[in-house]
Specification:
Helices cover 39% and strands 13% of the residues. It is α/β, with parallel strands linked by helices. A seven-stranded parallel sheet has the order 3-2-1-4-5-6-7, with helices on both faces. Bound molecules: nicotinamide-adenine-dinucleotide.
C-alpha cells in the first residue's frame, strides 16, 4: 500500500476556509478520508454515518484538531425524512451548507439470475436515491442563500461519488453498475438545471481504491496482481487519492468546472486490455 507523503498530514492550503461541508458515509473508507481532507482544507464538516458511531466520533475528533467545527450525524441517506432532518440540523448549527459530498454507497453482489429484488432495490435506494435526496436538500439551501462572495464564487457545490462503473459494465454487479450509471445522468442533469442558479454539480469516479467495500479485490497477492492488470498506473488507489480530488473540485480553484466527472482511477477507463492487442 502506498503511504501518502507525510502520513497524509502534509500541510495543504486552506482552500475551503469558511465553508461548511457535509459528507455522507463519512466514517469509513473514501468518505472518512474526504471528511478529514475537507476539514484540513479549512471547512467545518458534518460527518454522516448510518452505523458505527465510534468510528464517526474518531473522524470528528481528527477534524476538530484542525481548529474547525465538526459533529457526527446518524442518518440513512435512502430515507427522505432523515436526509431532510440532517440538512435542516446543519443549517441550524452551522448556518448553511456550501459543499455536499454524496458519498455513501454499498454493494450487494450476485449473478443476475440469483439477484433478489431486495438486493437490487437496496443498492438503488442508497447509491442513487440517496444521492438524489442529498442533492435536493442541499440545492434548496444553496438557492435560498445564494452566492456569498467572501465565502465562494459559487452558491454551492455538489460532488457525487460515482465509480468507473458509471461507464464500465460489471458482470455480477448489475445493481451497482446501474446505480452508478444513474449517478452519471443524475449529476449531468442536475448540473444543467442548477448551473444558472450558480450551483456547481460534478462527480468523482474512483477506480479501485483500498476500502472495506472491496477487500476481496486486493487482500491477497493473487487478487491484487489480477486487479493491477486492469490499472495502467499499476497501483491500487488510496482513499486519500479521492479525498484530495474532491477537495480541489469543491474549491474555487475549480470554479469553472460544471457537470464533469473527474476519473481518479490510475487509467482504469483507458481500456487497458487494448494496450497489447486489438
Ligand atoms: P465503505 O464501505 O468503506 O464506505 C461506504 C460508507 O457508506 C460507509 O460509511 C457506510 O456505512 C456508508 N453507508 C452505506 N449505506 C448508507 C446509508 N444508507 N446511509 C448512510 N451511509 C451509508 O466503501 P468506500 O469504498 O469508501 O465507498 C464510498 C463510495 O465510493 C461509494 O459510493 C462507492 O460506491 C464509491 N466507490 C468506491 C470504490 C472503491 O474502490 N472503494 C470505487 C468506486 C466507487
Amino acid at each position: 500500500m502506498t503511504t501518502p507523503v507525510d502520513g497524509g498530514r502534509r500541510s495543504v492550503p486552506p482552500i475551503l476556509r469558511g465553508q461548511r461541508a457535509l459528507v455522507t458515509g463519512a466514517n469509513s473508507g473514501i468518505g472518512r478520508a474526504t471528511a478529514i481532507a475537507l476539514g484540513r482544507a479549512g471547512a467545518d464538516v458534518v460527518v454522516n454515518y448510518v452505523f458505527g458511531s465510534d468510528a464517526a466520533e474518531e473522524v470528528v475528533a481528527e477534524i476538530r484538531s484542525f481548529g474547525v467545527r465538526a459533529y457526527a450525524h446518524e442518518a440513512d441517506v435512502s430515507q427522505e425524512d432523515q436526509v431532510v432532518a440532517m440538512v435542516a440540523r446543519m443549517v441550524a448549527e452551522f448556518g448553511t451548507i456550501d459543499v455536499m459530498v454524496a458519498n455513501a454507497g454499498l454493494q450487494r453482489d450476485a449473478a443476475v439470475t440469483e439477484m433478489t429484488l431486495a438486493q437490487w432495490q437496496k443498492v438503488l435506494d442508497v447509491n442513487l436515491t440517496g444521492q438524489f435526496l442529498c442533492a435536493r436538500e442541499a440545492a434548496k439551501e444553496f438557492i435560498r442563500r445564494g452566492v456569498v462572495p467572501e465565502v465562494s464564487r459559487s452558491a454551492g457545490k455538489i460532488v457525487c461519488m460515482s465509480s468507473v462503473h458509471q461507464i464500465i459494465p460489471w458482470a455480477g454487479h448489475v445493481n451497482y453498475a446501474s446505480s452508478k450509471g444513474g449517478v452519471l445522468m443524475l449529476m449531468q442533469t442536475l448540473a444543467q438545471e442548477l448551473a444558472p442558479r450558480g450551483i456547481r454539480v460534478n462527480a468523482v469516479a474512483p477506480g479501485a481504491i483500498r476500502t472495506p467495500i472491496n477487500t476481496s479485490a486486493w487482500d491477497t497477492p493473487e487478487a491484487e496482481a489480477d486487479l493491477l492488470r486492469l490499472i495502467p498506473y499499476r497501483r491500487v488507489g488510496d482513499p486519500q487519492d479521492i479525498a484530495d480530488a474532491v477537495t480541489v473540485l469543491a474549491s474555487d480553484l475549480m470554479d469553472y468546472v460544471v457537470g464533469t466527472t473527474l476519473y481518479v482511477d490510475g487509467g482504469m477507463t483507458l481500456f487497458p486490455g487494448f494496450a497489447t492487442g486489438g
